[in-house]
Design goal:
alpha/beta; Alpha-D-Glucose-1,6-Bisphosphate, Chain A, domain 3; globular; single chain; seven-stranded mixed β-sheet; five-stranded mixed β-sheet; about 450 residues
Length: about 450
């Protein structure tokens, strides 16, 4: 079945335009609600959101859909995506929903669904929900006496704060560390600074004044420049930048140098190997992860397994094959001993724990390998698929011949935006730049 609504990370699009309309949100609630109702118990769904203005539109439509399907709704307000996954498990709910477009600008929004143990839904379940949304499967809505109810969970933030703090080693605290935290004017704008402060850090907060429009606006993990500048200006020990729903993290060291998700994965793998807690003999990442990470892991007798792009595919492989550390170069880090999905704040605490234990600066701790030169460029397109163009295919073939044996090329469509992503990696930076430009020019000529 061809997907009409769901992409690589739930449903996403421009707010108040297909598929992010109140009508579609209502259908999601009714279809997902009817799918997950199984048995005679009172069924429950947890709904969280980030700070986008359109959340006020999407949330009540979802509530109406789930209530009409016979599900009780627990509203937790602005909360990180991993917090919704955690609360779904903690509250023994049947389903969790996060209203967010993650790192996208404010005018986009999205709907992410989690099952009762806090895992993102499989492709098969999403297809079944789509069938119900399109009327291919009858939806039995609740009788009047069986309608659901909605209520707000007042201590939701406190529950998650305590959960996150518990992932930090009890024998340590953050006393003496000055930390810049950029919350991207997003879902963690209250939670992240509180966690760090309660662990005794000296906290400098950025991106903590959301107004509905400024989420991810020149701040957070996709725009970490201000964080880097503030770290140097304030003489801070480290900078931490989350994205709009706080499921990914980017770090900078005390010199203002960016540390991406691959470096964090390498650091966590090394540390857990030393503790004897790393499972699977390595870690799980995606096709985007740097070859330098792979070579580094080999040098310490660990291996890197790659999955298709998307943290839910990483998570699925980790569960099936027994790994407990995985993630993406973008900063989705999954620590399966603690969480079921990417959690930027939990990942950041693991980095801070290593700094405290070793009593060394972030520049020493975080830069664990020398990355291969890697360049990623995005090309926006409209309706026509440029990857089907003869000229584009020819350019890609020529590029593959150039890097053969010394690098790799990855070209794909974004699952959340109308973008073609071109990534080239190799041992020589000039060659990488030349190859990327060759492919990009061909794609731009075709769009």
């Amino acid at each position: 079945m061809t997907r009409k609504y769901f992409g690589t990370d739930g449903i996403r699009g421009t707010a108040n335009s297909f598929p992010m309309t109140p009508e579609i949100a209502l259908k999601v609630g009714q279809a997902a609600g009817s799918y997950f109702i199984d048995g005679d118990h009172r069924h429950k769904v947890v709904i969280g959101k980030d700070t986008r203005l359109s959340g006020y539109m999407v949330e009540p439509a979802l509530v109406a859909g789930f209530v009409s399907a016979g599900m009780d709704v627990v509203l937790v307000g602005p909360m990180p995506t991993p917090a919704v996954a955690m609360l779904t498990r903690s509250l023994r709910a049947d389903l969790g929903v996060m209203i967010s477009a993650s790192h996208n600008p404010f005018h986009d929004n999205g709907i992410k669904l989690f099952d009762r143990i806090g895992l993102k839904l499989s492709d098969e379940v999403e297809i079944e929900i789509e069938k119900r949304m399109q009327g291919d499967v009858d939806i039995d809505l609740a009788k009047p006496a069986a309608l659901g109810r909605a209520k707000r969970l007042e201590d939701a933030q406190g529950r998650y704060i305590e959960f996150v703090k518990a992932t930090f080693p009890k024998r340590f605290n953050l006393s003496g560390l000055k930390i810049v935290i950029d919350c991207s004017n997003g879902a963690a704008y209250k939670i992240a600074p509180t966690v760090l402060w309660e662990l005794e850090a000296d906290v400098i907060s950025l991106g903590v004044n959301p107004n509905g429009f400024n989420i991810n606006d020149n701040c957070g993990s996709t725009s970490p420049q201000r964080m880097c500048e503030e770290v140097v200006k304030q003489g801070a020990d480290i900078g931490i930048a989350l994205d709009g729903d706080a499921d990914r993290v980017v770090v900078c060291d005390e010199k203002g140098k960016i540390v991406d998700g691959d470096q964090l994965l390498g650091l966590i793998a090394l540390h857990q190997k030393g503790l004897g807690t790393l499972q699977g003999g390595g870690i799980v990442a995606t096709l985007m992860s740097n070859m330098g990470l792979e070579k580094y892991l080999e040098s310490i007798d660990l291996h890197l397994v790659r999955t298709q792009i998307g943290d839910r595919y990483v998570s699925k492989f980790m569960r099936e094959k027994g790994y407990n550390v995985g993630g993406e170069q973008s900063g989705h880090i999954i620590m399966r001993d603690y969480v079921t999905t990417g959690d930027g704040l939990v990942a950041a605490l693991q980095v801070l724990a290593v700094m405290v234990e070793k009593n060394k600066p972030a520049s020493n701790v975080c830069n664990v390998f020398e990355p291969y030169p890697q360049l990623l460029k995005n090309i926006r397109y409209k309706k026509k698929d440029p990857l089907e163009d003869v000229g584009v295919k020819k350019a890609i073939k020529e590029a593959e011949e150039v890097v053969s044996g010394n690098g790799r090329i990855l070209i794909r469509k974004s699952g959340t935006e109308p973008l073609i992503r071109v990534m080239v990696e190799g041992s020589d930076e000039k060659t990488v730049n030349k190859v990327v430009d060759h492919i990009v020019l061909a794609i731009e000529a075709a769009v």
